[in-house]
Amino acid sequence: MLKTPVMLLVLCLVGAAEALYKQWIPDTNYENKTNWDKGDVPCGNDIVQFSAQRQVSVFVETSHAVQEMRMPLDGEFILNSGAGFYVLAGPEPGCSQGITTKFKDSDTLQWFNPALWQAAASLGDLQGGNSLFAVHEESVPCQYDDVVFKALSSFRVDTSSSQSSIPVKTVSVQGKVFDSGSEFSQYLSSGSGRLQFHGSAAVTVGNPGCEDPSGCECRNSVNHQQICSSVTCESLNCKTPLQPVGHCCQVCGAILTIQYAAGFNLQTYRQRIYHLFLIQSKYKSVQLGMSKILKPQRLMGMIPFGASSMIQVVIMDEEQGEISEALAFEIVNDARTHGSNLGITEAEFQASSGGSSDQPGGTAGLVVGILFGVLFMIVLVLILVLVRKGIIQMPLMPSLRRLKRSSNNEELGGPLDHGFDNPMFDKPNMLPDIPGLYETNTNSISMTQTGVYFVNPVFDERETDFNA
Ligand SMILES: *[C@@H]1O[C@H](CO)[C@@H](O)[C@H](O)[C@H]1NC(C)=O
């Protein structure tokens, strides 16, 4: 048996976006202590009470002694073979007399609550009871996921949503896998289906799985508000908490964004990160989640203009994010060195400790470029205005000056001050007559035994010889 941290790491990596099982955690089983108000399954002297108004589907695995049972108006018992209820002739020893035990209300459990789902790459992992790390939007079933409701159990889930349907690949109930839309909608209108699924949206199956080797976006952002309404964020104490795409809360750690090209394989890349870095003991406290996301693009950090697909890697640790930053740095270096083989065109990170990968020509460069562009335009316009008002004389712009001159002539009927004439620019045919000024003079850099010196062709060569 692997130790828990190792197990967690392995599971973090096998979490392929391609085929993920999402299992609903709560159940409405008679035998589950958490379903009873006194925290224990009723014993033979108890009065068992189901709220009359609540609809419920209860799975009963074995047989139980009860003293009295008050049934709901609309509900069902799903009895396992050999399961049932009986009444004892006398009081059961060790069970206090005449206590009413109520079955808890399960109406409030929502499909879009990320805490109520458990993810695994295979059914075997689900049975092992271990979970993957995922951002909140990816913790609830994605469109290409297989949804599992535990066999030998029943449940009640509120599917209320702002959308009219919740598309998934398959749904499995009581061990039966539904992959055809019509068959599942038939189940939903059956007695059990009606009691198990309630709420405004209909779960629909038959959505295609993820066929793209580079991964698929979960596309749960349409339900972001719904998902985050049941999440409470903890307070953080790192310097600059980060906001992963698809997560309801900020985190301490590091976020990498990876731009991919043809040939990128998400599953292979996950394995690479695991074998290169995560197995190292210094990263044993690290939690890592990797998925394809749609990242909203913003011009100059403010104006939104569309979204683009990229790979997001969220790294968290038990410290203040330093270990995550170190790992992020190693991953970025690896991506930049082996990017062409991996199908990675760009990788960068932000860390909550304040650090980031310096990415020349990245967004920062773009912003600076745009800022300088805007500044340049403003200065240019200002100069033009000043020139037109005659505040500045502009010998370098003959056409403008001529324009000004001719307008002056028209308005005032005579030539005014022309400024000074620049012989070089007013008479273009003169330009080639100045030798060496606009041609590249191959002799302008000379090498002597004492050193290299530069010759400005405008000056006399004899004057600028530093050896003279
Ligand atoms: C009982 O229900 C709780 C909460 O719904 C769940 O976490 C737990 O796994 C259930 N127990 C069993 C044995 O299934």
Can you describe this structure in just a few lines?
Its main location: membrane. This protein is α/β, with parallel strands linked by helices and about 475 residues long.
Please characterize this protein's 3D structure:
Among the domains are: 21-25 and 109-226, no CATH class; 33-102, no CATH class; 233-366, Alpha-Beta Plaits (2-Layer Sandwich). A hairpin with a 3-residue loop joins strand 18 and strand 19 (303-316). Helix 1 runs antiparallel to helix 7. It has a five-stranded mixed β-sheet. It is built from twelve helices and 22 strands. The chain has 468 residues and is α/β, with parallel strands linked by helices. Bound molecules: 2-acetamido-2-deoxy-beta-D-glucopyranose. 2-acetamido-2-deoxy-beta-D-glucopyranose is lined by residues 25-27, 32, 34.
Write the layout of secondary structure elements.
Elements: H1 4-14, E1 21-24, E2 47-49, E3 56-60, E4 63-65, E5 68-70, E6 75-79, E7 84-86, E8 100-102, E9 117-120, H2 123-128, H3 136-139, E10 146-149, E11 157-158, E12 165-167, E13 170-173, E14 176-178, H4 181-188, H5 191-196, E15 197-198, E16 202-204, H6 224-228, E17 253-260, H7 266-278, E18 287-299, E19 303-316, H8 322-342, E20 344-351, H9 363-388, H10 398-412, H11 423-426, E21 445-448, E22 451-454, H12 461-464
Parallel strand pairs: 1-10, 2-5, 2-8, 3-6, 4-7, 10-13, 11-15, 12-16
Antiparallel strand pairs: 1-9, 13-14, 17-19, 17-20, 18-19, 21-22
Helix pairs in contact: 1-7
The structure holds 2-acetamido-2-deoxy-beta-D-glucopyranose (NAG).
